[in-house]
Amino acid sequence: MPRARIGLWLSLTLRSTRSLCRAGFMEGQPQGPPNPAGMENGTEPCGEERASEAQETTVTEGAAKIAFPSANEVFYNPVQEFNRDLTCAVITEFARIQLGAKGIQIKVPGEKDVQKVVVDLSEQEEEKAELKKGANLAPGDQPRTAAVGEICEEGLRVLEGLAASGLRSIRFAREVPGLQSVVANDASARAVDLMCRNVQLNAVAHLVHPRQADARMLMYQHQRASERFDVIDLDPYGSPAPFLDAAVQAVSEGGEATLTWAQSRARGFRRILTAQAFLAGLLCVTCTDMAVLAGNSGETCYSKYGAMALKSRACHEMALRIVLHSLDLRANCYQRFVVPLLSVSADFYVRVFVRVFTGQAKVKASASKQALVFQCVGCGTFHLQRLGKASGASGGRVKFSAACGPPIGPECEHCGQRHQLGGPLWAEPIHDLDFVGRVLQAVSTNPGRFHTSERIQGVLSVITEELPDVPLYYTLDQLSSTIRCSTPSLLQLRSALLHAGFRVSLSHACKNAVKTDAPSSALWDIMRCWEKECPVKRERLSEASPAFRILSVEPRLQASFAVRDDANPSSRQRGLKRFQANPEANWGPRPRARPGGKAAGEAMEERRRLHQNKRKEPAEDPVQRAARLKTFPCKRFKEGTCQRGDQCCYSHSPPAPEDTAAAASPDHPKTSYQNLPGSGVAAGPGVD
């Protein structure tokens, strides 16, 4: 009996200790019965060591060191390091602006110790004098600072809704200053267990708090203004559509704030700092379902994002604008609206950074920010039709009304083909160029901070060169292939547009993009002028083809293709890494994380190998091909000009007597091998 009681007491004590361990890491999580799925998957309490250490792999990225299973149990993709580096850079500048308005300056490792506080002073000389005097102040009078890895009481509260291994959250804690807390959430018990171990491995338990919950429910529970997050990062597997409604409600409130700070006159120094800062939350969203957003399934895109995607050469920028439209549409339901800071299309995904504001009056303008797209199926010409119209009224007011349209007729004015209707999509600028310039400057002055700094500089440099008020773009190969002519160089086409008095720029979303404010008629006139220098054989064009109809019209604009100095953008002249090559083999989206372990990963690889090139015709056996070609008579042999003799791959045998008699019979139509377009001779490869 005493032994039984001692055993029972020890069992209860161990259970209590295990529960307290889990509760320490899952602070704030509703307590309930044990998770059956977690028990079946072998989930262990946080802080305990796994028995199978040999099945784990350690990865170092940035300042974080992450251990994750070698099997595909927790999602991790090394190709998205650029995504994570860019996010750290954006949140750092966002924290600099937000905390600078409160009189707190952040300290970034590798940056020079220069005060970067957003100020608006009336006299610049007064500011310089005050900064000199400020250097001699007592330590207690110095401006407050926030360093990396320290808790800032007035700092940013960050939520990573789908954290997986916790790599992104740990990098925030170790690389971004000015943070109050980082909540790393995931619905998977294995992922949360792994996060707990990685948090302890990187010694950031004071900043990063793992949570196991449904991301939507967690964000819905933080709708109250005092509980909202300053930064929400969503990087799901596939579409983020199920999380957007909760995200726009859980991000912190926006509003205009005026801050004033004065020091005592008794010290002989007085400074008044007045900063106008929009204290709005930052929402970071990644979409990897590019097949849907690029137009392969328009009805699916409508069900997820509320817009029809079109197959277009500008599909990547159209995807960005569809995501921004979806975010603004969901925010409008709660009297909120979005303002894009940065929108990037890279690799196999799109990434948007937006601020979320609250304002009933500003929400009324959202309809005038959206547009439908009319795209010709023949020549690819597109036109935008705004959904709403904003016009000035008496007393400085703005009047909103329905827009008038459509801007085109039932048929394309250039090629006569029909139009497809896409959208609605975001028609306003997709970047805040001032904010992009701040991020670019910070990365350029501290290139050793990120492993992908060169690519970040290249992409952001192209973004700063884009025309902000010109949605979508054409491409060089699209314009040339439409009229069946050779392709002009990028500098020649850009020079022609500049000579004609139009603006033109590149796009970070496509290497051959031509983004211009020139109307489509002027653009096709320039291509007609180029065709005159590189003529097309008109007799080969069908009269119903877009090329024939476009080239049958004489150009009204005489284009000059002399290369101008300003036609070559600065990012191209400096040789920046603007468009990334494939980083590694099989670098696309990884398969969805699943508890099947390594066997499931091997099965996935085998399935990929079997499905590789399944839609392509298999290579023909050389012997079978030679036998098939011998069934076609040689045209040159009939003319007496074939010099190959027995080496010819076609037949030199005379036609069979029955074929000759059939051809000579009056009931059989007289044909010739030379002008028989549908005969087997024409079908044989190389007969000509």
TrEMBL record:
Gene Ontology biological-process entries: tRNA N2-guanine methylation
EC class: transferase
Cellular component annotations (GO), alphabetically ordered: nucleus
SUPFAM superfamilies: CCCH zinc finger, S-adenosyl-L-methionine-dependent methyltransferases
Renumbered residue ranges of the record's region Disordered: 26-53, 563-624, 642-688
Xref: InterPro entries: SAM-dependent_MTases_sf, Trm1, tRNA_met_Trm1_C, Znf_CCCH, Znf_CCCH_sf
Catalytic activity entry: guanosine(26) in tRNA + 2 S-adenosyl-L-methionine = N(2)-dimethylguanosine(26) in tRNA + 2 S-adenosyl-L-homocysteine + 2 H(+)
GO MF term set: tRNA (guanine(26)-N2)-dimethyltransferase activity; tRNA binding; zinc ion binding
Signal peptide: 1-19
Domain of life: Eukaryota
Keyword annotations of the record: Acetylation, Metal-binding, Methyltransferase, RNA-binding, S-adenosyl-L-methionine, Signal, Transferase, tRNA processing, tRNA-binding, Zinc, Zinc-finger
Family assignment from sequence similarity: Belongs to the class I-like SAM-binding methyltransferase superfamily. Trm1 family.
Protein name, per record: tRNA (guanine(26)-N(2))-dimethyltransferase
Organism, scientific name: Panthera pardus
